[in-house]
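Protocol step 4 of 5: obtain the predicted structure for the target chain.
Materials: sequence only (see below). No template structures provided, no constraints applied. The aim of this step is simply to have a reference model before the mutagenesis design in step 5. Sequence pasted as it appears in the construct record:
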Amino acid sequence: MTLRHIVSWKLSGETLDERNAQAAEIVAALTPLVDTVPSVRALAVHRNELFDGDNFDVTLVADFDDADGLAAYATHPEHVAAGAIIKSHASGRVATDFTV
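Step 4 output (structure tokens):
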């Protein structure tokens, strides 16, 4: 079994260009974690493409073996650093975790 972790963020930028720049910074911070955090089995980060302003702006989809793997990811120093970047840009967050 695999634990899938999905998180989406609303970004604080007032214009589309500002949100695009924030999204690019978040993508750049999260994408390398698939190679640097041992418990990550798969990871993808996506920028919303439609309905700007209505939809959330960025979504992370990450897979782990189990809840312990997710917990190890959450406390890994590189994830903590990425989280600080995200928090500096995010105005909202929603997440879900489930077994696939």
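Step 4 remarks: The chain has a mean pLDDT of 97. Residues 50 and 56 are 10 Å apart (CA to CA).
Proceed to step 5.
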